[in-house]
Amino acid sequence: MLIKTFPLTSFQQNTRIVVCEETKKAICIDPATKSDALAKFINDNGLELQAITLTHGHLDHVGGTLDLQRSFPQVEIILHKDDEDLYYGLQQQPLRMGIPSFALKQLGFDYENPPKLTRNWQDGEVYEVGTLKFKVLHCPGHTRGHVVLAEEVERKVFVGDCLFEGGIGRTDLPGGDYEQLIDSINRNILTLGDDFIVYSGHGRETTVGHEKATNPYLTGVYQIGRGRFL
Ligand SMILES: [Zn+2]
Ligand SMILES: [Zn+2]
């Protein structure tokens, strides 16, 4: 597996191209925004972009879908059905975040409507990219339809905004639920194995074992719903 990361937008969202090196088939996980660098990397390396695979529907993860699909019209676009309202409501997301409409263009949030999804993720499905096999795990809590993609042989998991080095995703946005997120992480990510490398939507890579041992949201240092101290 070859992974190329492009931190994009003011959110520094880790847009990734993930490649099966044997077959040159590739996916783009969470294209944040219009970026010529993505198509250039795909074309320069002779890759076949098979799909735009979306972990969830937030604007910093789906904002570049239309542009990439225009460059690669045959590409699949896949998202869990429970985040379709966020995805198709992309143009409204910045307004709901309190950004005034006159500032949208200046901040790069003047989105066109995103292209139609080609299908939805199913919890537990195995998604193949050449010889790579990604297990798709529904992990609600940051959004209702968040999924993570785990590759068992390569021991790598792409977790979007569920889990970060030393942190977890926000749960104060629409569809967010703190206890549900902790439950999703415990059930679907921490059970993968301590050696799994964790690729988050923002920030650096980490491992399941490191987060299990040190992440204050997971060790019990921060009690659920009670803030930092007793
Ligand atoms: Zn998010
Ligand atoms: Zn994000």
List keywords for this structure.
230 residues, alpha/beta, Metallo-beta-lactamase, Chain A, 9 helices, 27% strand, globular, binds zinc ion
Biggest sheet, strands in spatial order?
1-2-3-4-5-6
What is the CATH superfamily?
Ribonuclease Z/Hydroxyacylglutathione hydrolase-like
The coarse overall form would be: globular
List SSEs in N-to-C order.
EEEHEHHEHHHEEEEEEEHEEHH
Mean pLDDT: 95
How many beta strands in the DSSP annotation? 14
Bound ligands, named by name, code or SMILES = zinc ion
- Main sheet specs: 6 strands, mixed
CATH architecture: 4-Layer Sandwich
Helix content: 10-25%
CATH class: Alpha Beta
| Tally of individual helices | 9
Structure report:
With about 230 residues, the chain is an alpha/beta fold. It has a single domain (about 1-220), classed as Ribonuclease Z/Hydroxyacylglutathione hydrolase-like (Metallo-beta-lactamase, Chain A), CATH 3.60.15.10. Helix content is about 25%, strand content about 25%. It contains nine helices and 14 strands. The chain has helices spanning about 35-45, 60, 65-70, 85-90, 95, 105, 180-190, 210-215, 215-220, and strands at about 1-10, 15-20, 25-30, 50-55, 75-80, 120, 125-130, 130-140, 145-150, 155-160, 165, 165-170, 195-200, 205. The protein has a six-stranded mixed beta sheet, covered by helices on one side. The protein has a six-stranded mixed beta sheet with strand order 7-8-9-10-13-14. The longest helix is centred in the C-terminal third of the chain and has 12 residues, at about 180-190. The termini are far apart. The mean pLDDT is about 95. The protein binds zinc ion (2 copies). One zinc ion binds near residues 13, 60, 161, 201 and 202.
